[in-house]
Amino acid sequence: xxxxxxxxxxGYIGSHMVQLLLKRGFEVTVFDNLSxxxxxxxxxxxxxxxxxRDRSALAxxxxxxxxxxxxxxxxxxIVADSVKDPYVYYDNNVVGTLSLLDxxxxxxxxxxxxxxxxxxxxxxxxxxxxxxxxxxxxxxxxATKLMVERILKDAAxxxxxxxxxxxxxxxxxxxxxxxxxxxxxxxxxxxxxxxxSALDGSAxxxxxxxxxDTVDGSCVRDYIHVCDLALAHxxxxxxxxxxxxxxxxxxxxxxxxxxxxxxxxxxxxxxxPLPARVLPRRPGDPPVLVASSQRAxxxxxxxxxxxxxxxxxxxxxRWHCRPRF
Length: 325
Ligand code: NAD
Ligand code: UFG
Fold this sequence. Notes:
This protein is α/β, with parallel strands linked by helices. Helix content is 39%, strand content 19%. It has helices spanning 12-23, 55-64, 79-84, 86-106, 140-159, 190-199, 226-242, 259-270, 294-300, 309-321; strands at residues 3-7, 27-32, 46-49, 69-72, 111-117, 128-129, 162-168, 170-172, 205-208, 220-221, 223-225, 246-251, 257-258, 276-279, 288-291. Bound molecules: nicotinamide-adenine-dinucleotide and uridine-5'-diphosphate-4-deoxy-4-fluoro-alpha-D-galactose (UFG). Nicotinamide-adenine-dinucleotide binds next to helix 1, helix 4, strand 5 and strand 8. The site of nicotinamide-adenine-dinucleotide has 27 residues, from helix 1, helix 4, strand 5 and strand 8.
């Protein structure tokens, strides 16, 4: 039976990945420093606590378990923090990944799936972003993701490492079974912030800017269900069985929704009035980010199945009404 190492598997997206792998019969080891993740989120998987920058901890992990593939979700991922304290981001996201990749090479593991981001593109030059869109990140977080993609390309050429970098747009939603969901402290993401404000009337809902050149002045994003992301990782891992090299795929639904449209949809789902205060723009927010995921659909045979906005908000709402961690 295949054993998969999921680095960052105690976090939001990683824990949904772990759940899917376990359902599909894989043996799963999670390696996580629990800096933003949650012990209970790994469920029945084996959890080894440690930091990817600690090479000796990684070396003993790989020495004792025969992994068939590595999925790498660990990162510091708050864009604004990356602007304020970039060294932390380069250290965790680039130095940390390099440390992990070095041990992966020594253990002779050939398949590596990496969580990249739409943040690699920077300011969009066209409405639908495909993988050939220029990559000019506008913040250190996006720069770290692009650097790792470059490292993966060089590793493919030099060491024959097979990898897929998945450029997610806006991950959202929760496990339909209600066991897992998004819990970040602090939470910066739109949908969980809306739902927290629906649950707790005193948590003010803030809209960062309504003066963009968009349908209603607020920013437009492409929300992709976390379970659709997990399925894409599985397909990416299988893809590497027959494809050498370093590959990159966008993962989005192809549909853009404005902040105000998301709030309106959440009003319908929750039945709460959700009063919102308009604040100035949040620095670093591009006005519109919508994916073309044609390449992932054609090459990986992946289709988003749960990324209808009502389904995303509905699943997240059920989780927020009864979070377990
Ligand atoms: P998360 O913070 O919930 O999960 C990250 C996990 O990695 C946590 O469990 C954390 O404890 C662990 N971790 C962080 N640094 C570590 C280290 N040095 N050693 C060991 N463990 C470490 O984040 P998420 O929202 O689940 O995002 C997962 C990945 O997807 C990240 O790489 C992020 O940059 C990327 N991404 C997320 C989104 C999104 O919308 N959430 C969009 C694009 C890309
Ligand atoms: N927003 C609000 N109020 C809030 C939170 C967010 O108005 O309380 C707005 C933001 O200004 C933005 C939109 O809602 O216009 C979405 O913001 P999020 O913070 O939910 O997501 P981002 O688009 O900033 O970033 C996410 C991930 C990044 C990833 C990016 C790719 O966090 O890792 O998607 O699109 F790079």
